[in-house]
Design brief:
- The complex is a heterodimer.
- Chain A has helices at 18-28, 54-67, 81-90; strands at 2-7, 13-16, 33-38, 44-50, 93-99, 102-104, 109-115, 121-130.
- By secondary structure, chain A is α+β, with helices and mostly antiparallel strands.
- Chain A has a single domain (2-130), classed as Jelly Rolls, CATH 2.60.120.
- Chain B is mostly helical.
- Chain B is built from one helix and no strands.
- Chain B has one helix at 18-28.
- Chain B is globular.
- Classes of the chains: A alpha+beta, B mainly alpha.
Chain lengths: 131, 59
């Protein structure tokens, strides 16, 4: 298993980790199989979405805040229940295909670490599952 | 890796691809393991839901 460290700079942020993951594939010479990307944090998540227009990430972040407001009917004493809820909505894992050493993403897709309670130093666990 | 092509006809639509996926399983002789179904588009997704209005085994 490999671990990527991700530094976030805002309370809510989507950090493009695609390049770091491609780098891991090359360094480890992983060729055919799948990657399990796992976020070991309860207020973070992993997602795949558009990377060409940064407004997409902005729109996701801003509108998630409307769906799940920072302040609301929450009991959790830490005051970050919105972040926990978002983490479960997005999910703490993703699987992507590796074929012939290439990370198989769609033309516009990027892999994002989602921060919902930053800024923090985060971890992303990566396990290659060979075919 | 196998690629299925899916034609959609509306802005929002859920398309049952179960038959096509089963066909890929059969044609490739896949017997034991798991399938990773991956949508390479940023405005589409893959999901599993109830697909038959007959409830032979309950919902």
């Amino acid at each position: 298993m490999e671990t990527l460290q991700v530094q976030t700079h805002s309370r809510e942020e989507m950090v493009d980790v695609t390049r770091a993951i491609r780098h891991l594939i090359n360094e480890n010479e992983w060729s055919d199989g799948a990657l399990l990307l796992y976020c070991p944090h309860t207020t973070g998540a992993i997602t795949v979405n558009e990377g060409a227009d940064p407004d997409v990430v902005r729109d996701i972040t801003v509108n998630m805040n409307k769906l799940v407001p920072y302040r609301g009917d929450y009991h959790h004493a830490e005051g970050n229940s919105d972040a926990h809820i978002k983490s479960s909505m997005f999910g703490c894992d993703q699987m992507v295909i590796v074929e012939g050493g290439d990370l198989m993403l769609g033309t516009w897709q990027k892999i994002y670490f989602c921060e919902f309670d930053g800024p923090r130093t985060r971890k992303l666990w990566v396990r290659f599952l060979a075919s | 890796m196998e690629i299925l092509e899916i034609r959609t006809r509306e802005r929002e639509e859920l398309i049952d691809v179960t038959g096509a996926v089963r066909k890929a399983v059969r044609e490739n002789g896949w017997t034991d393991g798991a399938l990773l179904l991956y949508c390479p588009h940023t405005t589409g997704a893959v999901t599993v839901k109830m697909g038959d209005m007959q409830y032979p085994e309950g919902d």
